Description:
Radius of gyration: 24 Å
Number of domains: 2
Protein name: TetR/AcrR family transcriptional regulator
Strand content: under 5%
Number of helices: 9
GO molecular function, one term: DNA-binding transcription factor activity
Pfam families: TetR_N
Mean pLDDT: 87
Distance between the termini: 78 Å
CATH class of the largest domain: Mainly Alpha
Largest sheet: none
CATH architecture of the largest domain: Orthogonal Bundle
Shape: globular
Keywords: DNA-binding, Transcription, Transcription regulation
InterPro entries: Homeodomain-like_sf, HTH-type_TetR-like_transc_reg, HTH_TetR
Amino acid sequence: MVLQINPNALLCARGSRKTDMKNGLRERKKQRTRAAVITQAKALFDRHGLDGTAMETIAADADISIASLYNYFPSKDVLISAIIIEEMEAGLVEAEQHVTKPAKSPQQAFLNLLKTYFETFQHIDRTLLRRFTAHAITHEASANEDYFQLEKALLEQIEQLTQILSETTAFARNVEPKSLAQVIFSIANAEYYNFIVDDDMTAKDALGNIAGQLQIVLSVLGTEHDNQ
């Protein structure tokens, strides 16, 4: 039996591989450029403030043209959203340990999780957080989507912890975990608004305020002894 090779097919396969390689290289270059822009923007915002940093300066420090910068980030608000989303995604990853291996005390388990969130907020310039939140409330499509996707991710992580606690302890077994998670999220979210408007408030201060409210909620559910 003679194996017949179609040269056109070989050429097509080689061309496809080359195209895939070019696309892969192009995508990696875009990711590196995007990361460089975010890094430079964060540094400039830290040094000169939000209003004191022009998009042209960010482009120059990232070594790209202003047109290229606007291709990645059509406005300063879109860039701010990208910075905050990146920080919070890292915070969510770090917080996962408090979901998979929660403290035995329900109150401490929730506080450990929320502490990670607020310590992440604390590492972000409060001006950026205010701008990000205000921009989302204007209901502009992209900002609104970023903001509420972030809220959804935080709520889902609180729901996961609530579910695990309800399955592994005597905690709130007659309470629907999702509903309880929404109550706890609402407490934390209200404190977030206090946090972003008060530059002197620390993550520790926020957690202290949340702890008092959590204690009331959990005591109503019969967990005032915190399984100690």
